[in-house]
Specification:
There is one protein chain. By secondary structure, the protein is α+β, with helices and mostly antiparallel strands. It is built from eleven helices and twelve strands. It has two domains: 176 residues, Nuclear Transport Factor 2, Chain: A (Roll); 176 residues, no CATH class. Helices cover 40% and strands 27% of the residues. The termini are far apart.
């Protein structure tokens, strides 16, 4: 074979090698494209805030801790209307780009990098805002911030499923949903409901020395009014509280008596009533009900209103009372998702205890 023939054969080998390399490249491209498609589906679901779709694109079960956490943070019903408006404004600034050159496929596993871009919401802290409309306008003018996330995939049949939703980088994509909005104008009317049922049950259990299965609830309603001029009024509904306590006790008198007399028999209740000098158990129950009614009165709940001034500094609200209000004086709180959370100092060891109580005031519609 001459030089010409050798060169020709060498050329054929080179051409064959090039073809094999090209075929291998194409094979990798087809596998890589499926990974890219999966990454883009995930990017769309993240921007849409679609928890169900994100879980469907992943290896997570619907009832896993990560799935439940995503359902919680991406459920619009868990936020106020104002906060949802802010979320929508943030979503309008979001985009993503899949780095196709970063795609790696290794058998049943793969990975690629996605860069998410959104408004730098933490920069909102640099200014004060009168209302949510000001914040929404500001979001659109913020500089953007990039978030890098390396997605890991596992093959499941023909699908590539995300296997690292637990990554801190993935969780950071939703930090904007836990941000406290710096709204300074909080003027308006608010209401908070505090459940006293457990307090009452603990008191009865302590008195009777046994647990009681009680029905119903006791609720205490508080009102907070914040005026534009920086003054506030704080009060609670004494009449409704008394009515709630009386109704609760009346509904559970049978359970209270059965626990006190250590019996489950209505006939034995009649016997105990007779021993106490009553003609019947109904008479005993009626007499006790009258005693409770006479012992509980709104007259005992005087000075149910506190007035004073308040100031707002970022997400904190400081309230200074101008008149004395017994044992529960609102002092300070925080502004969270459009709600006012006020910490109440309590000094009532017999009933409420001495631990502070957080009242969550929601805007009155």
């Amino acid at each position: 074979m001459g030089i010409k023939g050798s060169v020709k054969k060498a050329g054929a080998v080179i051409v064959s090698a090039a073809m094999l390399t090209s075929l291998a490249s194409c094979a990798g491209l087809f596998g890589g494209q499926a990974v890219i498609d999966a990454a883009e589906s995930l990017g769309d679901a993240v921007i849409d805030g679609d928890a169900g779709k994100i879980i469907k694109l992943s290896t997570e079960e619907k009832d896993s801790e990560i799935a439940e956490a995503l359902d919680l943070i991406l459920d619009d019903d868990n936020y106020s209307d104002d906060y949802n408006a802010y979320i929508d404004a943030m979503k309008n600034t979001m985009s993503y780009e899949v780095d196709k050159g970063s795609v790696k496929v290794d058998g049943e596993k793969a990975s690629c990098d996605i860069t998410f871009t959104m408004a730098d919401f933490e920069a909102l802290d640099d200014d004060d805002y009168e209302d949510i409309d000001d914040i929404i306008d500001a979001v659109g003018d913020l500089d953007t911030k990039d978030y890098e996330y390396t997605v890991k995939f596992e093959k499941d049949g023909d699908d590539w499923l995300v296997s690292n939703l637990s990554s801190d980088d993935f969780g950071a994509l939703f930090d904007y949903r836990s941000y406290s909005l710096p709204v300074t104008n909080v003027a308006g009317d608010y209401v908070a409901v505090f459940d006293l049922t457990d307090v009452m049950n603990e008191s009865l259990t302590g008195s009777l020395g046994a647990d009681i299965e009680m029905q119903g609830t006791i609720e205490m309603t508080f009102y907070l009014s914040l005026a534009e001029d920086g003054t506030f009024s704080f009060s609670y509904d004494a009449e409704t509280l008394v009515a709630s306590v009386m109704n609760y006790i009346d509904s559970n008198l049978d359970a209270i008596f059965m626990t006190a007399f250590d019996t489950t028999s209505p006939e034995e209740l009649e016997t105990y009533a007779a021993l106490l000098g009553y003609s019947s158990y109904d008479e005993l129950k009626s007499d006790l009900g009258d005693q409770i009614t006479s012992s509980i009165s709104t007259d005992d709940l005087e000075d149910t209103e506190v007035t004073g001034t308040y100031t707002v500094d970022g997400n904190e609200i400081v309230m200074t009372a101008e008149n004395e209000y017994g044992t529960a004086i609102p002092t300070n709180g925080t502004i969270e998702d459009g709600n006012i959370v006020i910490n109440i100092e309590v000094d009532d060891d017999e009933v409420l205890g001495s631990d502070p109580i957080d009242l969550v005031f929601e805007p009155v519609a």
